[in-house]
Every structure is written in structure tokens, then in C-alpha cells.
Amino acid sequence: MAVPSKRPVSEMESPEPNTETKKTKTATDSNETQDDVETEKVTVIVGDQNFHVDKEVLTERSKYFQDMFEGTNSDEIIKLSDTESKYFAVYTEYLNMSQNGKIMGQTWDDLAALFSLGELLSDIKFHNKIVHTMVTTSEKDSIRPHDHVMRSLYNKSAPTSPIRRLMVKMTMKRYYDLEGSDYQYEDEYSVAVMKKLTAPQKERDEMYDGVIRPAKYYDTEKKRARRVAKETKASRGRSRKA
């Protein structure tokens, strides 16, 4: 039986040419892509200064601005009259920082104003960052805000605000270094402090010489007690060896 001969390779049908070509992404292409992606900016006027802020970041962080910009165009201008431009500048800088960003170089009056700004804007992260800064500043430098700052923060904050507990705690620590006349004001802050001073003893609260002592006094007494116990134990050990 005759076997059909194979066609020469040259006579075989060629595959359809591939007209698709791979495009190599160049630096120019990357730049063009980045240029195409533009963030929406909104203008916030505070005092005589204009701030151009990323709308997405602003509305994501602040419930105040989220409600303000709802259903509006991105180019709409918003005026913020309840704060100073220098404090809003700190806020915008904080928005551009990482999660571990620090707020440095602020006085207690500045921190009080920034805390009020955080409550106004309903930005929980910024609000908590200010409280954290207050606590670390107080612990590191052993410096606490003046009475007028603590009273202002307490009376202007919401009843459930953690700043109220913080202010009362700070006042308790310095109570015995202050004159009694400082607590004659009949406002919520003074009442809260006096309630804390006269409250039943709980947890760490202890009585020394018949009066409530601040936390620093407790720590000093405990250190002294540990030192005495250690010295007593060492003395007994030496006596046994003798």
C-alpha cells in the first residue's frame, strides 16, 4: 500500500501571525499613570488662611466634614470659625503623618485648644492622640496643666469624655500642693474633684494618717515598705550566719 508522502515544510500552512505585542511599562508610563490619579481637594477657610486638604482623607477622618460635604461638590469652600488657623494647621499636618506621628512642641493651652478642635471635628483618632500627648507630657516632665486649663477642658467636654477623668486624676495627684481656695468654685469640675476626694476607698486608695493621699504618696510608701522589708531580711540573714 502506497504511503502518502508528507508535504514539504515550506508548503505547510503557517500559523496565523500574532498581531498582539507586549507593552513594556516605562518610567514615563508610570509618571503618566500617577498624573492621571489626582486627589480631590477641598478648601477650608480658617481665619484669614486657606487650607487645601484631601477630601477623601478629611471626610474619612472627620464626621463633622463628612456631614458637611455630603451631597456637595468637591470645590465647595467651607469656613471654620470655631478655631484658630494655627490649630487647624496642626490638624492638617497630623493628617499627613503616619499612625505613629507625634504632636510636639505644644503648650498646655495649645493642647486644650487642639482637644476642643478634635471634639468639634469628631475625629476620634486625633482626639485620642491629644489625650495621649497630655498623659505622656505629664508623666515625662511631671508638669500638669494650670487650673484654668483643666477647668476649661472639663466644663467644655461631654459628660462621657475621657478628658474629664484625666483632668480629675491629674488634680488628685497635685491636690495636697494646692490651696483649698482653688476648689471653692461651684462648677462641674470642682464638684467632680471633691466627689473623688470624698469617695469610698477602692483599689489603690488607702488611708495614711487618716486622710486620702495622692497616688505619688502611695508609690513612695510602697517603695519605703519594700526597702525596709529588704533590709530586715538581710539583717536576719546576717544574724543567722553569725
> In terms of structural class, how would the helical and strand content be classed?
mainly alpha
Tell me what portion of residues adopts beta-strand conformation.
5-15%
Number of helices: 10
What is the name of the CATH superfamily of the domain at 39-127? Potassium Channel Kv1.1, Chain A
User: Helical amount among residues, as a percent range?
Assistant: 40-55%
Mean pLDDT: 68
Can you name the CATH architecture of the domain at 39-127? 2-Layer Sandwich
Largest sheet: 3 strands, mixed
What is the CATH class name of the domain at 39-127?
A: Alpha Beta
Q: What sequence of helices (H) and strands (E) makes up the elements?
A: HEEHHEHHHHHHEEH
How many DSSP-defined strands? Answer: 5
Low-confidence stretches: 1-15, 17-37, 179-185, 200-214
Distance between the termini: 121 Å
The fold-level CATH name of the domain at 39-127 is Potassium Channel Kv1.1, Chain A
The coarse overall form would be elongated
Pfam families: BTB
Protein name: BTB domain-containing protein
Organism: Phaeosphaeria nodorum (strain SN15 / ATCC MYA-4574 / FGSC 10173) (Glume blotch fungus)
Region (Disordered): 1-38, 222-242
